Amino acid sequence: MNRTAATVVLLLLGVAVVKVCLTGHYLRYVKEGLWPFLLASGVLVLVLAATNRHRHPKVAWLLPLPVLALLLVAPPPLGSYAAGNAGTALTRSDEYPPLPDGDPVKVTILDYASRAVFDEGRSLGARRVVLTGFTATGPDGAALLVRMILTCCAADGRPVKVVLDGRVPAEPDTWIEVTGTFRPGSVVDAVNGERIPYLKVEAVTPVAAPERPYE
Asked: InterPro entries under this entry (predicted)?
């Protein structure tokens, strides 16, 4: 790869990174808190493009592939396919404080599932809760509500799953807001053997995919 070609590739890469930062699409790939570092890396690549003075190996021609993906395709966030190939990821807490006031009360899928599994639903009681996530198919064809959680970026994304006891959209990757109550019992995730709790569904409302798809 000659100097001119390398400069063009670096320029496109820098523009792609800066673009996803400014449009908010970076939230499909990394956690929100990494925005300053991602933007700084994009600017650094642009500086490298402006000061490029070296020849580069032929393998550098592979760089345009992710660049074109970011500029033209914009891959969607992780969805039902990723959820079906990874086990539900729950974290145990030392304590489960009372839910906030309000009826119903909005909680994250991770918070609900952790309370339902590790606290056996005691801190949920008969409270009505609202969860937002996308649909997927679970063990024995069960309808699932899923939200992906990130440690750093989409590469380490893991699903948190809840079995929906009630009528829900059958099409996978449909974003919905579900109002319901805790239902005792759980099913076993076939991927990692962990427990997936139930939610007794009262109402389902289709919603647009959120700007921040990951919890």
From this structure: DUF1980, DUF1980_C
